[in-house]
Every structure is written in structure tokens, then in C-alpha cells.
Amino acid sequence: MAYTAEISRKNPTAFLFAIDRSGSMEEGMESGQSKAQCVSDVMNRVFSELLIKCAKSEGVRNYFEMGVIGYDTTLGVVNPLTGDLAHEWINPISLFETNPLRIEERQKKISDGAGGIIETTTKFAVWFEPVAKGGTPMCAALQTAYDVLNYWCATHPDGYPPLLIHITDGQSTDGDPEEIAQNIQQLSTNDGNVLVFNIHLSSKGGNKVFLPASAYGLPDGYAEKLFGMSSYMPENMVKFARQSGKKDVSSESRCFAYNVDDITDLVELLEIGTKAAMDVVDMDR
User: pTM of the prediction?
Assistant: First the structure.
């Protein structure tokens, strides 16, 4: 059974995020945030939570390596991170602890324990900022992802397969990305193929679609194409999806979501992938 390789400091896995930063990401979501700001908050939250999971008394253990590919036609395909994180596409998670762009203070609502809600100030680390400009060079971004993950798999042949998480709201403006996405899915370690997630932040509305087994009901060809560019869910991810309440998820489901409309939806989808990886982490190694 694939996707069972033990993750340790000597045998890490990788998460690579490809983020659409085109001008249409400035459009608002139901929460009132722009798509770009929502994605930025989700990314920063996921980085923080993964750091917490890897933290031990002696410091952060490098169970994971992570990277971000940002893409638009104004700046092109870039690594949007800063400091020591800017030199390589994928870096050990411990470098994220020491290289946030800044630490913000944000207001957070919590229970007061008596049925009420109070506001408190909390620290919020920021590595990834919202950008929305230009067109959508999706093919160039995914080709970069292919090159990065091809090298990673070659240098980590016994590793738990990496995840590519692609978040976009638009149509590719530099060609058809489907073949490149299929090529990425063919990359592999000895433990299985690279898993490709696609999250479509559409402005067309319609029903929310979460880890579907079919493209039926998707509103247009762009959504259907992203569905076809997404990996089938392996059994360990199906298990975690069902545990999170997604009882209709099966081995025919794809790593795809359409019209997710708030941070909670995005975080829930990404947690399904990261929890499956955490399940095989050896915390003693």
C-alpha cells in the first residue's frame, strides 16, 4: 500500500504551494476579504500549524520541507518568500521559524467559558503576502513545479510522496496546463506518486464542491479542467476526510475543491493532506 513511508528528519516529505497572484485575485469573497488576502491568511496559518506540529523541546524538527511558487504576468513565476527562504524553491521547515516576514498582532474571538465571546490579541506570523496583478501564467508555474518536484523525488527516492497544492481563480493565459499537471502526477518516489491538489476560487458562484468523485455539476470547462488535473485521493487521505465528516469521500474522489468561500474551508482541505502525512511521522526520529 502506497503513502506509508515513515517520515523522519532523515527522510522528510515536502509540501509545495503554487499560488495564482493574477489581478482577479483582488475580487472579494463572501467573507469580505479579497481572494488574495484569504489565501495569504490560510498559507500563513498552515505554516504556523505545521511548525507547531514539528516543534520539540530542542527546536523544530525537519519532518517537512516547504516552498511557494507565486505566479502572475507582472512579476512572472517567483519565489515570494523572503530572507533565507528566498534562495531555494523548497526549504526545511526550521527555516520558516527563523524567517517570517513580520509578526502581526491580530484580534481573535474566543469563548469566555460562560457562553459568551471575548476578543483577545494574538501574535500572527506572516511569510506570504497578498498580491493581485496581471494575468495567469499557469503553465509556466506548473512547469516550474514539475522541475522542482522532479528533482526532489530524485533526491528523496524513499520519501513519502510530496504534495503540490495549487490555488487559483482563473483561466490559464499561457496555454493548456492539463498535460503538465498530468506529468507532475507521474512523478514519484518508491512510496507513490506526487499528489496534486487544485483549489478553484471561482467568482461564478454555484454550489460548493469538496473532494468530488465526478466533474458533474461543475459550472464550466475551467472547473472541469482543474478537476481533471487533480489526483485521486489515496486511502489514508480518504480515511482522514471521513473522520472530518466528509462521509461521501471515496477512493474515486479527487483532490479538488470548487467555490470554497472562506478560510475554514481552505484550512480543512489542506489539513486533510497534512494530517495524512503526520500519521506516518516518527516523532522519535
Answer: 0.90
